[in-house]
């Protein structure tokens, strides 16, 4: 067994830990969306995320780069199998995940958050030459890639995962570049999933009732008015609420609602 075969990439074999919307706001970054087939969504919910390492087109790796010289890079080097190596890919844009990977259905999306404590690298460019330079700087071996692109991509992934738990590719210029807004996670144990049943009274995601007419809404945010007593008197905070009818109201006094849970 050579050292490549000994590389251990983190994966999960248990459901994604669930947290409340308030805890997600306090401790996490997101949301991010993973689009896939309905069958795989069920497996992810039951057992968490895993990935397979192979060439583009093999099981679990249908998306990715073709094994040809990377166009525009000024070299005859093929790109890695995947843009940020092997890992779990998410989009910060729900529509991209749904339409490009989830077969156009929101039911085929897994929405997750990643802990703020995660080591997240960020890059933001679209030039093939710059991308190739970054890959090589992160350990991608072009000569090896010409013979065994999977092995070269494994080395890239290993080097990246030593520095980062995930890499966020912004790809934002005048237009969205390549597969911008994507997050590749190497350590899925840092992912969390919201469970609305964990909501506590007065927290984000909890219900409120408007006292004036009984309208029900969902609490989205609370903002303290401490230090502004000269303007707002005894009012303690502003609430942001999404009403069942009437859209979102950004400036609701807490005294105007009843907290339901």
What's the alpha carbon Rg, rounded to whole Å? Answer: 22 Å
Overall tally of domains: 2
- Tally of alpha and pi helices: 8
Please estimate the helix content.
Answer: 10-25%
Strand percentage lies at 25-35%
CATH topology of the largest domain: Phosphoenolpyruvate Carboxykinase, domain 3
CATH architectural grouping of the largest domain: Alpha-Beta Complex
Structural class: alpha+beta
Low confidence ranges: 1-10
Q: Measure the end-to-end span.
A: 56 Å
Q: Quaternary status of these chains?
A: single chain
Shape: elongated
Quantity of strands, as a count: 13
Task: Determine the mean pLDDT.
Answer: 88
The ordered string of helix (H) and strand (E) elements is: HEHEHEHEEHHHEEEEEHEEE
Pick out its properties.
alpha+beta; disordered N terminus; 2 domains; 13 strands; Phosphoenolpyruvate Carboxykinase, domain 3; 261 residues
Structural summary, described in words:
With 261 residues, this protein is of the alpha+beta class. The chain has two domains: 3-194, Alpha-Beta Complex (Phosphoenolpyruvate Carboxykinase, domain 3); 199-259. It contains eight helices and 13 strands. The radius of gyration is 22 Å and the shape is elongated. The N and C termini lie far apart (56 Å).
């Amino acid at each position: 067994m050579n050292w490549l075969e000994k590389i251990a990439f983190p994966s999960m074999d248990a459901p994604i830990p669930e947290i409340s919307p308030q805890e997600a706001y306090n401790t996490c970054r997101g949301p991010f969306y993973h689009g896939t087939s309905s069958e795989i969504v069920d497996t992810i919910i039951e057992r968490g995320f895993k990935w397979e390492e192979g060439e583009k087109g093999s099981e679990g790796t249908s998306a990715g780069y073709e094994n040809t010289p990377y166009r525009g890079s000024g070299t005859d080097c093929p790109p890695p199998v995947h843009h940020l190596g092997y890992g779990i890919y998410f989009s910060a844009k729900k529509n991209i995940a749904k339409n490009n990977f989830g077969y156009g259905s929101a039911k085929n999306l897994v929405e997750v958050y990643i802990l703020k404590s995660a080591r997240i690298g960020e890059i933001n460019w679209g030039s093939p030459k710059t991308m190739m330079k970054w890959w090589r700087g992160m350990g991608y071996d072009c000569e090896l890639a010409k013979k065994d692109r999977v092995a070269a991509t494994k080395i890239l992934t290993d080097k990246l995962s030593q520095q980062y738990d995930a890499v966020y590719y912004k790809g934002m210029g005048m237009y969205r570049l390549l597969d911008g807004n994507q997050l590749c996670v190497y350590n899925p144990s840092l992912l969390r999933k919201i469970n609305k049943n964990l909501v506590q009274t007065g927290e984000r995601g909890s219900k409120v009732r408007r006292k004036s007419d009984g309208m029900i809404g969902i609490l989205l945010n609370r903002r303290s008015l401490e230090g502004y007593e000269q303007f707002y008197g005894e009012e303690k905070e502003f609430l942001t609420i999404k009403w069942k009818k009437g859209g979102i109201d950004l400036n609701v006094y807490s005294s105007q609602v009843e907290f339901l849970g």
